[in-house]
Amino acid sequence: QVQLVESGGGVVQAGSSLRLSCAASGRIFKFNVMGWYRQVPGKERELVADIDNNGFTNYAEPVKGRFTISRDNPKNQVDLQMNNVRPEDTAIYYCAIYFGSRIVDRVPGDDAYWGQGTQVTVSA
Fold first, then answer.
1. What is the pLDDT of residues 102-120, one digit of tens each?
2. How far apart (Å, rounded) are the C-alpha atoms in residues 106 and 32?
3. The dihedral of CA 35, 48, 45, 16: what is its sign?
4. Which distant-in-sequence residues (6+ apart) come within 8 Å of 107 by Cβ?
């Protein structure tokens, strides 16, 4: 089992910055992908950014150039630096980690582990 604990959400004004952190604990395999996803009511959860254990990153188009994902492997921690946030970034942000064959196509499966979510609200 793996546990994920997120922190750093809140209410901010458009154009400001916010940093989310997620710490993983438990049985964590060396080869993995950690990522941030977000969801708004009525829509499916979507990728924000992910990073594998080698540091290769992947970003959704709407956040490219504004958000930066990073990780600390010894601490099993992944952070999301959010700059120049926009009202459309308002969502619940979830941290995830997954292993095995899913890391090839970078898609979390049913066996992925998820955090409890942290609310990010951006006011205009």
1. 888 888 988 999 999 999 9
2. 10
3. positive
4. none
